[in-house]
Amino acid sequence: MQVSVETTSGLERKLTIGVESSKIDGVALTKMKELAKTQRINGFRPGKIPLNVIKKRFGAHVRQDVISDVMQRSFYEAVLQEKMQPAGPPRIEPVSMEEGKDLEFTATFDIYPEIKLEDFSKVEIEMTTAEVADDDLTKMIDTLREQQANWVEVKRKAKNDDQVVIDFVGTIDGEEFNGGKADSFELLLGKGQMIPGFEEQLVGTKNGDEVEIKVTFPEDYQNKDVAGKDALFATKINKVNKKEALKMSELAEKLGIADGKIADMKADIRKNMERELKQAITSKVKQQVMDALVEVHDFEMPNALVEQEINQQKQQALQQFGGDASSLPDLPNELFADKATKRVKLGLIVSEIIKQNKITTDQEKVKVKLDELASVYEQPEEVVNYYLSDEKRLSEIEQLVLEDSVIELVQAGAKVTENKVTFDELMNPKDAEAISKESSKESSKESSKESSKEGAEAKEESSDSE
User: Are 211 and 111 contacting, i.e. CB atoms less than 8 angstroms apart?
Assistant: First the structure.
């Protein structure tokens, strides 16, 4: 077998491979002899079909199969011979396949890049720290009491945050329309579940009231048949319910705390909050490390791997939003290219860190990781067995442990700054940001008032001096 290597561009390599015709002809002849023993052709006894008849009828097909097998096998032999590592499947193109002559073909493919790992001191990490304060625990318990609250019927007028149970029939120009009718519909007022104007007209109604609600469907409403049209909803109010938060003992019982002990419930909730806090901090650090590794390393990417990742992300998108494989070509690669490139790059960097630092899977850490994952379930033993019983599922956990080891290694050499925040700021950043903005507004108002007051006082003093 003759092999020549050509660098066509960057990471792309082109092998030209020559295979002696005798190897192909010999294998093809053997296969045709085997066919002669099993084929049935009119006019010939089974097993007695002349070879020239078999060759005439099946020769071209057999030879094509043999050539295809030989090209695949020869490619992998050539790659081993040249000590190359393909980053994806090759594009094989025949050059010469004439019978009686040597086979010649080309195989074009990407190789893996050489990655020079940067010093981890170039990686900057903000280590966020937080703790579960007593106020955080109280707030969480209040939230749980609200979430688990009971709806209790009241004999008063409905207001925002009440639940009304209604029957309604919608009409447009006196005609009912599809989707405009419901019985015993539970609606929470003030949350914008219905089209604009609907809920507002139910505020102030009470049990037994019958009202006509006039609304206009938005121009961009999903049902184009009613979009932009005026509608009338004949509505009957069956019930007005208010939310009644659970007592502490009721919440404890609902959460499955033995004997409904409040102290045990608080300890259990705090434990869960601390676990979630730890996971959030770990996840935030991991994301920072991963982003920084991608940022500080620069090398050429194998197109084959990026294309594979793009196709995988397309398939995931189709599964998530519905669709079939025939829709794949309709999804433009540009939608997925950046994310796919980053993911492939990160995978190559992490693999290189594992390789150069000889990081191996620590089975004790795998066990700890499994126990952590299983601890949030009612039957943790079943979850552990679920992963242990399947090699593929277990390998996913082992990969997570390897990634954790890489994060620890990078973090140890990185430039780390500490940032202490509250539980809410870390776990509910949007809420914390909204509160911060509101505080800034109030502070600004107070500052403005103070400035105006000082200005007025100064003006009075000036006037008095005159």
Answer: no
* Range(s) of the domain holding residue 43: 2-110
User: Can you give the C-alpha Rg of the chain in angstroms?
Assistant: 36
Q: 3-class SS at 125?
A: strand
Q: How far apart are CA 262 and CA 244, in angstroms?
A: 19
Question: Could you tell me if 394 and 289 lie in one domain?
Answer: yes
67 domain-assigned: yes
Distance of CA 218 to the CA centre of its chain: 32
Same domain? 90 vs 189: no
Residue 11 has pLDDT above 80, yes or no: yes
Q: Return d(Cα 431, Cα 18) in angstroms, integer.
A: 67
Last residue of a domain, one of 186, 215, 244: 244
First to last CA, the chain: 110
Determine, yes or no, domain membership for 54: yes
pLDDT, tens digit, for every residue of 22-45?
Answer: 888 888 888 888 877 777 777 777
Sequence-separated (6 or more) residues with CB below 8 Å from residue 444: none
Mean pLDDT of 187-216: 95
Give the CATH number for residue 199. 3.10.50.40
Token pair listed for 60:
């071209």
Helix (H, G, I), strand (E, B) or coil at 42: coil
Residues 102 and 240 in one domain: no
Q: Give yes or no for a contact between 185 and 165, defined as CB atoms under 8 angstroms apart.
A: yes
Task: Please give the tally of structural domains in the chain.
Answer: 4
Q: pTM of the entire structure?
A: 0.71
